[in-house]
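Quick log. Single chain, no ligands specified.
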Amino acid sequence: MTTPITISADRQDPGRPFTHFWSTCVGAGRAAEGLRASWQEHLRTVADAAGFRYVRFHGLLHDDMFVHRRNEDGPTVLNFQYVDDLFDRLLDAGVRPFVELGFSPRDLARDPSTTFWWKANVAPPADLDAWADLVRRLVGHWLARYGRDEVRRWYFEVWNEPNLSPFFKGSKSEYFALYEITARTLKDVDAELRVGGPATSNFVPDARFAGEYEDTSQHAVVSEAADLDALDWRPVWVEDFLAFCHSRRLPVDFVSCHPYPTDWALDGHGTTRQHTRAADATTRDLRTLRRIVDTGPYPDAEIHLTEWNSSPSSRDHSHDHLQAATFVARTVLESIGLVDSLAYWVFTDVFEEEGAGDTAFHGGFGMLTLQGVPKPVFHVYRMLHRLGGELLARTEGAVVTRDSSDGSLSALAYHYPPEVIQAPPGSFGSREVAEQTLATGEPRLLKVELTGLRPGAAVAVTTMDHTHGNALAAWRGMGAPEPLTREQTAALREAAHATGHEVRHADDAGRFLVEEAIAPWAVLLFAEL
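-> predicted structure:
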């Protein structure tokens, strides 16, 4: 076996605050999808199980939400009924909106450029004053409907990935102008509203390429480097954005971007390898972003990573497998204390950027399939949520925490095989690469010792591995039926929910000890009852 994972803690050990930054926010596809019963059921499921407090999605102002319509011979019509319906249901579920102000309503867009299957209008507003009026009236409506105290708890992010031409048919300077008028408008409505950006995609190698991406030939040279992970990866536009806002005395309550651990974006912009970066790439990126913010003109700004996953593809079969879940556990525990949120993209396969998935397991981003079947990543977020609010011990592969209210201890351990030096490699067109990754690695010895417990205290042990909480394996065990019948769907949901569960006990001295092998890609939770 490789080096053991060893961790120990006593109930009386001094602890430090342990903020559950990974459950601050979660992503979803677009606003109109949120009007569906299954989407709403899935949101309640993940919010209850994993404690998500905000949800972010595209398309709030899209034509299928009917927010803005310009009549040829009459006044502009604003219709907030669909938005009200969606936001009412979010709040009823105990989840607040992380508001993405974009894309343009068609009648405000400068040209007819669109992206995604659902044709998001990606051209910037032709008339910034008209855009500002829409923002002013919409936010004013929210203040009247939900109350000032409630809306002040929300976040307002300007646009989505404006550095990528498929998502913003404009320049960096045009985005900055859009941010300026939007931020000023929000603060004019209520100075306590929270606004931020630039919501840019990916980190890129070398600071030279954190600008407009206009010279793709230079980017190609970097992408041919022998060791991409040895390069200095920087967040796109963030430093320029902060400098611009400071020069214009603009508010920046939070900084946002999307640290996918790859060198490619959805449009394959530039000449890249579709390189999957090192397994610790996200953590290194977050450290870089933390330094930039701490030493910049807005050191008190929060940091929200409003999209993140092992890859930016909704057809990557690795998303259905164990390795995607273990990657989440590893990244979260390695990134403690660096940011205010790391929003998993997304919570459900009710998601249509490329249209509907053709099969139940099509590599979608979601924690739940379209049918509501939990994938392994759902279980990891559920297990992480069970950790306490005080950190007692931390090592490579494990943490021990204490609940600040009742003093109970919990520990989480994972086995991300050291043989896999990358984040989970993408698996496109088939599951072949995902299966090869899943088969990599050897068992590892796990040693967990918890002391100071009550004599004979019960400790629940939850296991997610190849045979527990593995939806894809359960589906294959049923003969891989497609399409699923109602009865098969119900049976698969039950099987996929079944993580391993047993209750063990501390000894008479209040000592709980585990010494056993942990399989590659497994995640275990130990929770004092």
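The radius of gyration is 23 Å.
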